[in-house]
Amino acid sequence: MNWEKCQLSISAFRALKTCGAFLLLTFAIPCPASWPTNALSRSVLMLDQSDAHSAWYAQFSNAFRSTLHAAAGGRISVYAEHLDLSRFGGPQHDDLLRSYLRDKFRTRPIGLLVAQGSSTLEFVLRSREELWTGLPVVFAAVDEDTGKRLSLPLGVTGTLYKRSFSSAVTTARVLVPKVKRLALVGDPWERQAVRGHYRREIQKFEFEFIDLIGLPMTEIRKRVAALPDDTVIIYTSITFDGAGTTYVPHEGLAAFADVANRPIVIDVETNLGHGGTGGFVTTPFPVGEAAARLALRILNGEPASKIPVATSDFTKPIFDWRQLQRFGINESRLPAGSEIRFRPPNLWEQHRDLVLAALSAFALQTLVVSALLIQQRRRKRAEALLKESEERMTFTAASMNIGLWQFDRQTDELWATEHCRNLFGLGCEVPLTRETILSRIHPEDREAAISSVRETSTTDRSAITDVRVVRSDDQQRWVRIRARSHSYDRGAPSQLSGIFADITEQKAAEAEAALQRQEVAHLMRVSMLGELSGAIAHEINQPLTAILSNAQAGLYLLAQKSPDLIEIREVLRDIVYEDNRAGEVVHRVRSLLKKGERKFETINVNDLINSTIALLNSELISRRIKVKTELADPLPSTWGDPIQLQQVLVNLFMNAMDAMVSTPMMQRRVVVSSRAAQAGAVEVLVKDHGSGISVEQDRLFEAFYSTKNHGLGLGLRICSTIVEAHGGNITLTNDVAGGAVATLSLPAQEMLIAAQ
Asked: What is the pLDDT averaged over residues 47-57?
C-alpha cells in the first residue's frame, strides 16, 4: 500500500482517539459484517505480507492476474494491498491496518480474499471476524509447517508448499562434496515466518554451523570473505541487519555476495541473479497460478469449505552459471533436470540463424536449379501417369459396380464417373449435378443422405449411409454413399469425395437371411412345443375334465324337483372359469406358434415371466421342479416383441430344467428374479441347481454347438440373436453356490425413447 497515505490514516486515527471521538467513528462506519460475501461478487482483494518492491510478489501477482483473467468468463476486479509485515508487526500495527482497510474498502464489494504469505494468513485469521466475516479466503505461499500449526476455520483454503532445511543441505553437498561447515546468513529465526522450523531441523545434521544470523552487514561481509574451503553459505532472507538497516531480500543477498569466497545456497527463485549460486528454489509463478485456479472455483460458485487444503512442491533445481564458473563447480555434479541460467551463448548459438540462412539459401539455390532442369520432363510424365491411373481406377471401380465422385462446396460443382449414371438411371443427356443425384434418391431417404454428408465437415471419419434409388424405369435399387471431407484443406473443408456402391444384392441377401432366421426361430418354437406337447395336453385336460364334471353335476341338479339355483350358478361359474383357463393355454401355444414379422410393444417383464411359468407349469410338475420368483416391483417397462422374448425365456427355463436331470429331486429348484440395473436396463436372472457350465461361455453361443446329446446347438444362438435385436445381451455364468445363472439384460423403454 502507499505508506504515506497509511501514515496519514494513522495520524488521523490517533487524533480522533485523543479527542475521545473513536466510539463515534466506529458507529459512523458501516460494519464489515455487512460487506457482500456473495461468491458472485467478481472482485478480489489480495493482501501481501511484503512491501511494494518485493520481487517475489511481482512475479506472483503477474501469474495470478494473467491466469485469473485468461480463464474467467468476464473481467474480475483485483485490488492489492501490501501489509509490510516483514518489517512491522504487533497489535498496534494490526489495529492500524484494520482501520486503513476498513476505511478504504467500505464502499467496495469484495467477493474473495487472497492472503499471500504466512504472515498475511495469520493477520487475516486474527482480523477476519472483524473485517471480513463470512468472506472466503484463499491463501498462497504458506509453508507446510505453518499450515499444520494454524487452525484453519471454514471458508479458508489454499495450497501449502514444502520447504525444508534438508533441501539446502542436499544442495550444499552437491556444490561442495566434502562440505563440513555451513554458514547461516539471514534474519533471526523468530522473525522468519516460513523458515522458523529450520531451527529444529538444523539439530539433525552433524555440521559445524557458523552463525552469521542477525549481524550488521559490515560484519557479514567481513566474515563471508574469509570462510574455510569446506564451507557453504546458506542464505534465507534479510529484511533488517544487526545495525537496523532495512533490505529487500534479494538486495540483502547482493550486499555481501560480491565478497563471499564460498558458494551461496538459496531457496527462492527471486534471489537468483543477485549472487546466489542456486539450489532447490521455490518459484512464485506456479504458486500464483494455483491460487488463481482456486479463486476461480470459488468465484464460480463452489463453496470454499468444500475445497480441501492441498500440499504441492513448487520447487525445482536452478543454478547461476556465472557462480558455478566462479567457484569451479562442474555441471555434471548438479541434480538431474537442473536448469542453468545466465549461460552466455557460444558462437553457434550467437550466429546460428545466419549460418542456417546461408546454408538454406545455398541448398535452395541448388534445388531450384535442379528443379528447373527436370520440371518439364517430370510434369509431362506425371500427367501421363495421372491420366492412365485415372482411367485404370475408373475402369476398376466400374467393374466392381462402384462410381467415384467429388463435390466442391464453394462452387457447387460435382465430378463423377460415367458409371454413376448407370447406378442412378440417368441418361447421357442428363447432366451429373447434385440436384439430379438427389432427385433419384427415394424421398424418405433423401434427408438422411444430406445430413450424413453434411456431418463430414465436422469429423475426419467417413460418413456412410444406405439409400434407395428410384430409377427412370421404376426399378428400385439400394446404393451405399460413402463420403469424406479433405482434412488438409485450410479452414472449413470445402472438398468432399467418395463413392457410390450398388448394394442391392447385399440388401436382398440380408433380407433373405433375416427371413431364414425367422423361419429357424419359428421351427425352434415348434420343436420346443413338440417336446412340451405332453405337458400342454395335460394342462388342457385338467380344465376339460373339470368342465365335464361340473356339467354332469349341473344336469344332476336340474333333474331334481326343486333344483338349487345358487348351487347351479356356482357350477356354471366353474365351467366358465375352466373354459377360460383352457382358452389361455391354447392362446399361449398359438402365440408361440405364430409366424410373421416382429411387432414391438410395451412389455411388463414381470408379467412375461409369470405367463412363461404358467405355460411351463405342467412340465415343471412332471419333472418335480419347483420355481421360486423374486420379482422387483416396481420395475421399468421395456420395448420389444413379447412372443420372441417369451421364446427366449422358455429356452432358458428348459435349459435350466435339463441341467438338473441328475440333481436330487429335493434340490431341483429354479430361481427366477428381475431387477432394475444401472444405465437404464432391466435384468432377468434364471438360476438352476445343476452341475454348472464346464465349457467357455463364448462356445455356448456358437451355432450347432450343444452340450446335450439330443440338442441341435441353435437354441442359445437364436436367443442371442433375438436379444441383440432388442438392444440387449444375454450371458451364462457359474454361480458360486453351485449351478448356472443365465442373465438376460434389456434396455428400459425410457432409455430407448431418449436414444431416439
From this structure: 89
